[in-house]
Write a structure and sequence with these properties.
Distance between the termini: 106 Å
Shape: elongated
Strand order of the largest sheet: 2-1-3-4-5
Strand content: under 5%
Number of strands: 5
Radius of gyration: 36 Å
Largest sheet: 5 strands, parallel
Number of helices: 26
Length: 712
Amino acid sequence: MTRDISPAPATAPTLDRPVAPALPPVSARVSERYAGLDGLRAIAVALVVAYHLFPAWWLPQGFIGVDVFFVISGFLITSLLLHEAATSEAAGRGRRISLVGFWRRRARRLLPALVTLIVVCGLWAWTVGGDVLVGFGRQVLGALTFSFNWISISAGSGYFDAGTPELFRNLWSLAVEEQFYVLWPLLFPLLLLIPSRIVRAGVAVVAAAGSALWMAVLVSNALAGASGGTGVTRAYFGTDSHGFGILLGVALAFVAGQALRAPTAWMLRAGVRRGVTALGALAVVGIVAIAIVPPAPDTATFPGALLVACLLTVVAITAGAWPGSVLGRALDLGPLRFVGQRSYGIYLWHWPVLVLLMAGLSIAPGTEVPLAVGLWALAITLLAATVSYRFIETPVRRNGFRVSFAALRARLSGAPAGRFAALAAVTAFVIAAAATTSAIAIAPQVTSGATAVEAGQQALDAADAPTASPSPTGPRVEPPLAVQTGDEPVPGPRPTPVTGDQVSAIGDSVMLASAPGLMERLPGIQIDASVSRSLNAGVGIAEAQAAAGQLRPYVVIALGTNGPISAEALARLERAIGPDRHLVLVNAFAPRDWIAGVNAELATFDAAQANVVVADWAGAAAAHQDLLAGDRIHPGHTGGRLFAETVATAVQGVEDARAQAAFDRSVRASALASRLVDGEDDREDGGDVDKDAGTDAEAEEGRGVSADLPER
């Protein structure tokens, strides 16, 4: 028979273990408590929460807090198993562990808070709707089966993507830990066959090194484009490639787990304690310092920075749990212990709350989290974690599932006040569970942005585009010059309407989503658009089309969404377009850091070039964000028409300006011709008198006008 002795709310972390009947009295047992671990948990969860809720703070690498958790988990779970094996051996039963008891305690610890999170956030997401529900069913499946990391990888999700995030994305790390909890008790007895604890630790260290090396290989392959679709997220989410932190915690438990609970005399020396405390304090400072350093999307961070953070955590755990350590007492201060004991709930709640708040307030994914939203998310997270810890997690962890359900049934049939509270709780849970089930049923498979892009691609595929393009250097219809010789009124400028067969368009997914609107507004337009296309790629396409004689008189480029652009690339683009065509650059609108720089670069280039004009999609989209998809980037059907109208207006504006310039020249030429004709008539009538009456000012005026005559 086993029982759970996990830590009570008012104490520091205690190891869960089965209790044999032959155990000695509590006073005779070796201390099971490791000082400082709650404080380390508090620091770890604070780093992760700040990284997500307050990205403008100086913690761009705060995600290393997850690796701190991994090391703590590996250390505690292995220490628990070692203690259980030692207890069993002392009772004369050999080194045995209860797998069922171990997994039952893990279920008590993890499932109550997790199920509560899923149903509450499922209800919330159901009320919000839209893109926040994308993939909701598979996310719930991954969360409940602790396989979220692999399901997310198979779905092609990206942890570091700025697009619409998965609601339960943070549960990937819980999946890694739980997979360890399933496998490690099965492998643990095999390592106990090795008599030397140093050799056991060495095996764990070698395995950790292999895991870190595998992450480095995966990341290197991803950066080299040789990963076959596997990116940094695969390396980061993988249990195999991100297990080194847990394994380093395992190694620490093998080496020092028992010694830290039953110290020898040399460990208690004052000089040793001071030295260990100093090293531990430096390790904690080092963990925070790593979180401040901006990450690099390569092996310097994955696994470099992560591995260093894990090694520093090993030192911090050792120093905090060292008998008599000042660091352990400092990390056990009340506020840190409060946060550390609730760190599981805080970690569970903070990310879904943020995603749902952003979606409910229609704040685009990828936008920097507003400070007010971050503060609200933090407040809701702390409240939810505290309620969960007090009323859900602790009762189940102490009493187990059967006793907890029995207590609930007793309340339902007890005093009116207790009955009302219990009935309200059950009713709320049922409603939330029903809403979660409904959310799974109605969840879209792809985001609204992806739907808009797919619709655009289908429209292009279905279009019967002409195979031949008008010659970009062919004749153009020019409005007649407004030279008049009589008294009839002078007509206004007469621009030629620009049709789609005069326009070539090269763009990214924004143009692709707008393709139906472009083809409707400019029938016959030539469109070459693709997802994730950069300006550099677009320049190459323009050069190839120019060389093949496929570029039309008006060339529209919309390639600012996917990254910064340079003046050099724009100059190269202009050379590809050539002097006989007009270049229309569409500025960008997206919740991305580089967009302001892109639009400034386009405006500067426009001001310096005569045959370049900017179509102000940024202004149009900003004024009509309701016409965009949930990602606040891609236009929907009506938004695509707005994009097309913006482009068509800019293109027609080029022709209007040309016609206006031609009209202005014709007016000046007509005025000069009229004065010349009038001068001849005056000379015929007045002879030398009219000749002498001419003034130098009139002569100067005639010379000025003649300078404006169009070239012939």
